[in-house]
């Protein structure tokens, strides 16, 4: 830190003070405000803070917070790691994360998909991990195609950055394929509704098993270096490892874990060392956390978009385990709830289901159309008290999730 120019040192110090005051005032962890003030005083602060460090950027529509956490955990043998653990995934958050760990030689930064070009340009990150792209509450299919196009330009201009990309996602593959060096990871693709046409030419994509290719041009699935199959992963040399020790549940987290293994092996951390460290991660920013309340064990699952709902369904307790769903439509959730119609809720048939949240009526209309029996309740408490003591899975979108998490005790 002491080799930063004076102006940058001041920017960091003032940013820290602002973050601290923001925390004292009870306004979150302060990383956004701290970073914002720092960048205002020194617009090149991110570049300066990134200098002389080995950085990883992690981006995707889903799983980036979890994967950032997994990579950070697996890199601990290398020493101190700077990371934006609380999901502040824009440059302001990156500045705060790096400023908070001035002596860390390594950094793992979750990056909003739209900021990948800017953050890559400013930090010259050594490794960029790209996992999946799908429509969400804000972006529809055409927008994610434009986004992948921006990744292509950014990676083409960053020949020193190595890319780790999920070759089971055609759009990610296209977005990554201008990079000078890529490790392809067959990490699986659960949600396919956004990849029926070729991002290169618009022709139809044919699929056969895990393989895919365009019928009209040469764009097709690259040969993977790492392969996830079920609960096992095959590394580039052909050795196979079990992922059964992971505490984070479901297919999506196995996919996040194999991406993490591929990333850390770039820094010389082999799977034998990395796997036990991945297995230590139990919950990430409240996701998958269970809380006890009045004899109920409530497990919190966050789903922000259609692909996220599939991931949550994948980890539900076996039927007929009860499920509560909570949907809000505040700023971070997107005001428009029409994406509810992209999710196939029929999988919930035969379970006791409670619907709540500010937009419970939208949810009710959707569940009714899917022939799912449900009970409409005013708040999550009513759902919790209505289920018999035992396990309850709660799936909620962003602000609904935060509300429930606060309601039952903010657990990390
Ligand atoms: Zn094509």
UniProtKB/TrEMBL annotation:
Task: Name the EC number(s).
Answer: 6.3.5.13
Q: Mind listing the UniProt keywords for this protein, alphabetically?
A: ATP-binding, Cell shape, Cell wall biogenesis/degradation, Ligase, Metal-binding, Nucleotide-binding, Peptidoglycan synthesis, Zinc
Which family does the UniProt entry place this protein in?
Belongs to the MurCDEF family. MurT subfamily.
Gene that codes for this?
murT
Q: What is this protein called?
A: Lipid II isoglutaminyl synthase (glutamine-hydrolyzing) subunit MurT
Q: Name one GO molecular function term.
A: acid-amino acid ligase activity
Biological process terms from the Gene Ontology for this record are: cell wall organization; peptidoglycan biosynthetic process; regulation of cell shape
* Cell wall biogenesis/degradation in keyword set: yes
List the HAMAP family.
Answer: Lipid_II_synth_MurT
Keyword Zinc listed? The answer is yes
